[in-house]
Amino acid sequence: MKFLKKIQGVLVYFMLGFSVFAKAPLNLNQTNYEKILKESIVSKGNNYRLKTIIEKMKKGQKVWVAALGGSVTEGAGPANFTDGYAYQFFRALKDNFTPDEGKNLNFNNAGLSGTSSILGLVRYDSDVTEICGRSPDLLIIEFAVNDDGSESTQIAFEGIVRKVLLANPETAIIALYSAADYGNTMAQKKPVADYYSIPQVNMLKSVKESIDKKLFTHDEYFTDNVHPTLEGHQLVTDCLINLINTIDKDKKDSAIKVPEKLFKTPGFDNFIRILGDDDNVKIVKGGFKDTDSQTQSLKKTNKGNFPINWYKQATNENEPFVLNINCKNFIFTYKVQGSWLTEKYGEAEIYVDGKLFKTVDGGAKNGWNNCENLILINEKTSSNHKIEVKMAKGSEDKGFTIVAMGYSK
After folding, report:
1. Do residues 269 and 159 make contact, with C-beta atoms less than 8 angstroms apart?
2. Three-class SS state of 208
3. Residue 244's closest CA among 69, 19, 11, 21?
4. What 3-state DSSP class applies to 107?
């Protein structure tokens, strides 16, 4: 009976243009559904890496699948976050591309709400490779509705891609461009993905056109202005699976090398997250000597996702945080206090080499323990720098958390 059920599921899968569901989501007819699947593929890139992973999955070899992104990847929208596209995609891979119901596949969802490519770069080692125990075999990157379209987020997106491929040139990357009412940043990311010959899927064009043509309504696809409904996530999943099926049928390309040069210079190459002092980093914590246990948390763990941080409690002495480093670029991430916390956060001044870079507010209105990022340094060559953080006038008796930092040399 179990075997028969699986055969029936496979037949349904092929009959519905590779849908992993009993029917096309959002009450789409077959013609419109297949058009969306086809048009969602922006580029198949060089298929060598992805076809190699598909072959491994079919043979029952151990494969790690991971997804790195914002709230759409984390699973926001449906009642259960595990009904998000990333989890749906993994289940579809197990059901349709592996023997033994996918016992050879492992999955790590590294989506974190409200985060951009900049923080994705900072988080990659701890939230992806450390969880997998190695580089993933297949990685989805999805920050297209979180990034602001600036050059900073473009170079951070490239930094993630380059970090992944330099660590393991065999890792297959898929760039996913989610949809939102305000658009997405595919135009910014596509040149980078093309430069590295990465397969790409875009949801914005098809979703916008389908809503305009009344094939489905805005509220049938979105729960708000960015997060898909359950069926919206199903459509994203189907588009990703369609990419896998399409590439599976194609002739295998020749292996491709990682480009020697960056697409965008200066940029993030061989990025390192700071976890404390080392031969290249010297820190004097000052009043930022404690560890904040209430940093932004992952849905899958419900625990703070930044266990190593630098926290000035409101009651701590008002002494500056000082970091000396040799680097060519530097990312600084701080926490915006959740409105429900009793301790009040304040403004901090950030200095680079003795000059005020920016004053930031850790107690800004509507904060939810979310992370905000700054690129303090971005130069072509490394040199010695001094980063100093101290509470602004009037905030000496308030709290502030440096959530994370990282750099390239």
Report:
1. yes
2. helix
3. 19
4. strand
Contact 174, 243 (CB under 8 A): yes
Which amino acid is located at 268 in the chain? F
Cβ within 8 Å of residue 116, ≥6 positions away: 70, 143, 146, 147, 148, 153, 156, 373
Q: Tokens 């040149």 identify what position?
A: 191
Tell me the per-residue pLDDT of 243-258, one tens digit each, with 9 for 90 and over.
999 999 999 999 999 9
Which burial class, exposed, middle or buried, applies to 104 when counting CB atoms under 10 A from its CB (0-12, 13-18, 19+)? middle
CA atoms within 13 A on the CB side of 326: 6
Instruction: Write the secondary structure of 321-377 as one string of H (helix), E (strand) and C (coil).
Output: EEEEEEEEEEEEEEEECCCCCCCCECEEEEEECCEEEEEEECCCCCCCCEEEEEEEE
pLDDT tens by residue, 66-98: 999 999 999 999 999 999 999 999 999 999 999
Distance of CA 24 to the CA centre of its chain: 27
Q: Is residue 372 within 8 Å of 340, Cβ to Cβ?
A: no
| Upper half-sphere CA count for residue 195 (Cβ side, 13 Å) | 19
Give strand pairing partners of 348.
360, 391
Q: How far apart (Å, rounded) are the C-alpha atoms in residues 9 and 293?
A: 45
**What is the widest separation between alpha-carbon atoms in the chain?**
72
* pTM attached to this predicted model: 0.93
Do 332 and 374 meet the contact criterion of CB atoms below 8 Å apart? yes
What gap in Å lies between CA 106 and CA 129, rounded to an integer? 13
What pLDDT, in 10s, does the model give residues 198-235?
Answer: 999 999 999 999 999 999 999 999 999 999 999 999 99
Give the Cβ contact number of residue 153 at 10 Å: 24
